[in-house]
Structure formats: structure tokens, C-alpha cells
Design goal:
The complex is a heterodimer. Chain A is 45% helix and 22% strand. Chain A contains 14 helices and 17 strands. In chain A, strand 9 and strand 10 form a beta hairpin. Chain B has one domain: Rossmann fold (3-Layer(aba) Sandwich). In chain B, strands 2-1-3-4-5 form a five-stranded parallel sheet, sandwiched between helices. The N and C termini of chain B lie close together (10 Å). Classes of the chains: A alpha/beta, B alpha/beta.
Chain lengths: 492, 137
């Protein structure tokens, strides 16, 4: 608790005073500066902050009171000791009122000024200490403020809605996502009871928590905000307890799981439809076979020929359906392993058409082709073949005898274009609209004996989409259909 | 006079299975492949019993057709059986399973597919035609 090397300024017009004080304190290891005029004293005394100022009250040029005023104005905490020859009470009172720390009457003995100095320097030490503490505190406060604002920023940038409530169910903290997620129409205010603004399902959740507040640690609940009913929110609520394990409030984290729910729904719909579609051919097969086994229509084996043939057809469909389902789920899961290579679309179409030569002949159809050169695409051969096979087999299946199937390739603005046309039964506009829907099959008198899975075109579209291509259909009922697909040409 | 049964199913094969069996048992049978066709056929054929598949153009086409028939003056008294491959134990649930919706549909019976042809025949005879006229000639 000591200032080892104090800085001292002596302002006095008497040489003897200046030198006397200098000698005394320099000998103790302090630094002493002097000024012999009031002007000089103000200049030196305001240029740096000295620990102790000794000021003469009666200087030649300026009144010592003025010097004191100037220094105090600059350094309000400066310790100024007034040295004055007329040691009257009034002068002392006046200078202390102006901010002087103490005064000493001239002439004085070294012990006297030493005593004044010792007390002043102690005072100075306290001032410096306090100043340091204050600075430290300010720094900490700043840190805390920064920390708080950092946490605030983090909480605000979380995509989930967060709300903290005290045990009186009053809002303590929330982020902007919270009211947005709940689509609150009333303004959320800190200190306000949460029940006033919450939608009903959420209020019940809170009531639940308070009913079991002693045992409850955390609660997870889904609820639908209405209106609009599409919004499904998952609330994760956790109690906040103090060090005595007393409930002091809780924090609730809300997540919008509407999309997830929608996906779940789509998935379960797909599974339901798949199950139904798998069951349909089996139902038919079982029915046919039961008739054969029970000889429902008599003992003539020929009676059942057609039934057995249909059973075979339907079981083939079933296999195709299962393959299609597997392929779709593989594409959807992004699990397909592709071997991308340079392929000539015309060549691919040509070889796919070759594969169907017998089928085309059997259906009394003619095949017409028109292939352009140099339509190079980067794709997986197997996928392109699957796509072509699906389109060509449709063009055959949904055709009519003596009709034709046309395959045409051409180049169009960075894309390889393929048209697959038939002269078949065509589609009604409402059927065309649902064409790429999973399991959709056109049902009209022409399609009754045509087997299919309802997944072929879904699969085609998924493949085309995955190559950033596109597929279109043109159709006229009872006239024919043309599928046009565009696949990006490979970059050279 | 033969009793008349109308069967509506979009699976042509199933009609191939059931129709000969019913005809052999002495019923007069007419068929349709869609709900719309079924409704038109009903008005002209005026059957004594209607058998409808549930999922045709839409998953609930059978429900809608049943409701339409039951709300026709000539259809109010005609029994309707809804047949579905979506049996309850497969976990497939239609939104039309509540009491209110059942009242709207007004189906007399629900049958799970597949049902063997002779079982279907036995069921129809017992449930709707206790003393079928077909047995009298």
C-alpha cells in the first residue's frame, strides 16, 4: 500500500520552497518537477497527471486558486496541497471547497510537510486503487454484456422456437422463432403470462407439466396448431431446477415437424398402395386357381385354359411390379450405383427396339424408326435401356392391331430428343393428367386385358429427372400417344 | 324370373372368375369396370344385388358408387356389398371407417378380397337370397 515513486509537482515562485521540497522528496526516491509561475504550473500540471501537487496560493502572475481550478478541471481526482503564507481559515475553506485535498501553512518544517505528504500519498493510493478496480469492473461488465449478446445471438439464430418461463408461467426469454412458429397473433411480452397468448393445445401441454411438476424432468409432445391444421409442432419441454432441486421454471423448444409428418403420410400412402397393388394380381391368381382346383365350371380341362394363362400373365406382372418397386425405392434412396458412360441415344433406341422385334410382330404392328447421328449422352446404360424398354413396351401394349410404333431421335438445343409414338388407344385428358402418378393405370374398355404395374412411367420419369432431363406426353383418346423425352447432350 | 346381380370391378380378371360361377348358379349378371359405368348400368339393369370393388379409379370409388346408388329412388332398397383387397389386418385404413362415414356410404356388407368363388356364392345365397328362385326351376 505504497507508491514507491510518486510524481510530484511544485508550483511556487520562491526558489527556496521549490528546491527545499525537491531535495526532501527526491532523496526518498520520488520524482519532483517544479514550476515558478502560475502559467507554467498550469501547463505542466495539466500535461500529465501528478500524484501530488504542491501549489503556492500567492504566485506572481496568476492566483493559486486559479491554478488549482485549472488542474482540478483537467484531473478531478488530483491531490492538491495548498501551501500558503496566510494560513487563515477562510482561505483553507475556500481551497478545499474548490477541491484542494489539504493545506499547509508557510513556513513549515520538513516533518510537517512530510506528514501532509504521507497522508496525501495514502489518499492518492486509494484513488489509484479504486480507479483500477473500476476499470476492471467495467471491463468485466463489458465482457458480460458481450457474452450475453453472444448467447442472445445464438438463441436467436436457432431455427427452433425457444421459450423460457418462470414458475408463474411468465415469459422470461424467447427467440423470434417462437412466436413465428406458433403463429401467435398476440404480441409476446417478457413478464406476461404465457397462457394469454398461447394456442389451446400448447396450454394443455403446460397444464400437464404443472400437474406433474415434482416428478417431471422432460416432456415431448406433438400437437397441431389450428388454424391452419397443417402445422404440426413438436414441443420438447424440460424443467429448470435450482441447486436445491426446486422447480424454478422450464424451457420449451419447439420444432416444426409439418414436413416430416407430410413425408410420413406420403410414405405410408405409398406402402398402402403398394400393398394393394401387390394383392390385386394375387387375388386374381388365387381366384383362377380355385376355380381350376374346385372344377367350378365342370370337368372339361379346356374350360380352364384361359384361366391358367391369365394366372401366368398376372404372376409375371407381379414379378415386374416387385422389380419396379425395388427400383423406385433405390432411386428414391439415392442408392443406385451408376456406371456413367458415353452413349449414343440412337444406338440405344435401336438396340431396345430390336429386343421387341418378336413382340411387335406378334401384335401385328410395324416399327418405324428415324435416328439422328451424334446424339451423345452421359448416362448409365442399364437405366437408359430400362427407360426405353418401358416406353416401347407401352407403345406396343396400348396399340391396336395393324398399328405402328415410331421411334424418332433428334437434336434440340443442347438436348437429345426421343419421340416414342403409337397409333393405339390413346388417353383421355383426365387420364393423361395422372400419367406419372404411382400405380395409376388408365381404366377404360380398351385397357381391361392389358397388364401393367402402374409404376412403369413413374420409373421412367424418375430416371429422366435424375439426369436433369424432362418427359412430356401428347395423346388423343382412341388415336394414339407420343412420349417425348429430352436428355442433356454430353459436353465434348 | 332370374335374380339379377351387378358386379363392378376394375380388374377384368376378377369378373372373369366370379361371373361364370354366379351365372352357373342361376343369376343374371351384368358387369361394369368403373364407378361411372356402374351407376349408369344400375339405372337400366336394376339389379337385386350390387357387388362393388372399393378401389377403382380412386381408392374410395366403391364408397362413392354405393352412396350414389343408395340415394337413387330405385336404389334405396337394393343391397350393396363392398369388396376390398385392403383388408383391415393389413393395416390399411381408409378415412371412411367412422360411424358417420359408414352411414353416408350405407353399404350392407363389407367383404375382404380374395374370396374364393364358391364362398362368395354361398355368402350371397345365404345373406341375400335365402330361397333363391333359381333353385325352383
Amino acid at each position: 500500500m505504497k507508491i514507491e515513486r510518486a510524481n510530484i509537482l511544485v508550483v511556487d515562485d520562491e526558489f527556496g520552497m521549490r528546491e527545499g521540497i525537491r531535495r526532501l522528496f527526491e532523496a526518498q526516491g520520488h520524482r519532483v518537477e517544479t514550476a515558478e509561475t502560475g502559467r507554467n504550473g498550469i501547463d505542466k500540471g495539466t500535461a500529465e497527471e501528478f500524484d501530488i501537487y504542491f501549489l503556492d496560493l500567492k504566485i506572481g502572475d496568476i492566483d493559486g486558486v486559479e491554478v488549482l481550478g485549472a488542474i482540478k478541471a483537467h484531473f478531478p481526482e488530483a491531490i492538491c496541497v495548498i501551501c500558503t503564507a496566510y494560513a487563515s481559515i477562510e482561505t483553507a475553506v475556500e481551497t478545499t471547497r474548490l477541491g484542494a485535498y489539504n493545506y499547509i501553512a508557510k513556513p513549515f518544517a520538513p516533518e510537517e510537510i512530510q506528514l501532509v505528504f504521507d497522508r496525501a500519498i495514502e489518499r492518492r493510493w486509494y484513488i489509484l486503487e479504486a480507479r483500477q478496480l473500476r476499470a476492471e469492473q467495467e471491463r468485466r461488465l463489458l465482457e458480460i454484456t458481450q457474452e450475453k449478446s453472444r448467447i442472445r445471438t445464438i438463441i436467436n439464430s436457432i431455427a427452433d422456437g425457444i421459450v423460457v418461463l418462470n414458475q408463474d408461467e411468465e415469459v422470461v426469454l424467447f427467440n423470434p422463432q417462437f412466436p413465428r412458429l406458433l403463429e401467435l397473433d398476440k404480441e409476446l411480452v417478457i413478464g406476461r403470462s404465457i397462457r394469454e397468448v398461447l394456442p389451446e393445445p400448447y396450454q394443455e401441454l403446460i397444464a400437464d407439466i404443472f400437474r406433474q411438476k415434482d416428478s417431471l424432468q422432460a416432456l415431448q409432445q406433438e400437437f397441431i396448431i389450428h388454424p391452419p391444421a397443417k402445422l404440426v409442432v413438436m414441443a420438447n419441454t424440460t424443467t429448470i431446477r435450482d441447486d436445491q432441486n426446486r422447480l424454478i421454471g422450464y424451457v420449451s423448444v419447439l420444432r416444426d415437424i409439418s414436413e416430416l409428418k407430410q413425408l410420413e403420410l406420403l410414405k405410408s400412402q405409398f406402402v398402402n398402395m403398394a400393398a394393394h397393388e401387390l394383392k390385386a394380381p394375387l387375388t386374381a391368381i388365387q381366384g383362377f386357381l380355385e376355380m381350376v382346383v374346385d372344377k367350378t365350371l365342370g370337368d372339361e380341362p379346356e374350360t380352364y385354359d384361359n384361366y391358367l394363362r391369365r394366372s401366368l400373365e398376372r404372376s409375371k406382372t407381379l414379378i415386374t411390379l416387385i422389380n419396379d418397386l425395388l427400383n423406385i425405392s433405390r432411386i428414391q434412396a439415392g442408392k443406385i450405383r451408376r456406371e456413367i458412360e458415353r452413349l449414343d441415344l440412337s444406338q440405344q433406341a435401336h438396340s431396345a427396339a430390336d429386343f421387341f422385334a418378336n413382340e411387335i410382330e406378334k401384335h401385328e404392328l410395324t416399327l418405324e424408326t428415324e435416328f439422328a447421328d451424334g446424339l451423345v449422352i452421359d448416362a448409365d446404360r442399364e437405366e437408359i435401356q430400362r427407360l426405353l424398354t418401358n416406353l416401347i413396351s407401352n407403345a406396343i401394349k396400348y396399340n391396336r392391331p395393324q398399328g405402328s410404333v415410331t421411334l424418332r431421335t433428334s437434336r434440340e438445343k443442347g438436348y437429345a430428343r426421343l419421340d416414342v409414338s403409337d397409333t393405339g388407344i390413346g388417353m383421355k385428358p383426365e387420364e393423361k393428367e395422372r400419367l406419372f402418378e404411382e400405380f395409376f393405370r388408365a381404366k377404360n374398355p380398351h385397357t381391361r386385358s392389358i397388364t401393367g404395374t402402374g409404376l412403369g412411367l413413374t420409373l421412367v420419369k424418375k430416371i429422366v429427372d435424375s439426369y436433369a432431363g424432362r418427359i412430356e406426353a401428347e395423346s388423343e383418346y382412341e388415336k394414339g400417344t407420343t412420349f417425348t423425352l429430352y436428355l442433356p447432350l454430353a459436353e465434348r | 324370373m332370374k335374380k339379377k346381380i351387378m358386379m363392378v370391378d376394375d380388374d377384368y380378371d376378377l369378373l372373369q372368375i366370379y361371373v361364370p360361377v354366379l351365372e352357373k348358379a342361376g343369376f343374371e349378371v351384368a358387369t361394369a369396370n368403373t364407378a361411372a359405368e356402374g351407376l349408369e348400368l344400375f339405372k337400366t339393369f336394376l339389379p337385386d344385388l350390387v357387388m362393388v370393388d372399393l378401389a377403382m379409379e380412386h381408392f374410395d370409388s366403391g364408397f362413392v358408387l354405393c352412396h350414389r346408388i343408395k340415394t337413387l329412388p330405385e336404389g334405396a332398397q337394393t343391397p350393396v356389398v363392398i369388396m376390398t383387397a385392403a383388408s383391415h389386418e393389413t393395416g390399411i385404413r381408409f378415412s371412411t371407417q367412422t360411424e358417420e362415414e359408414r352411414k353416408w356410404i350405407q353399404a350392407d356388407e363389407y367383404l375382404d378380397k380374395p374370396i374364393p368363388p364358391r364362398e362368395l356364392l354361398a355368402f350371397i345365397k345365404e345373406r341375400f337370397f335365402e330361397t333363391p328362385e333359381s333353385q325352383q326351376h
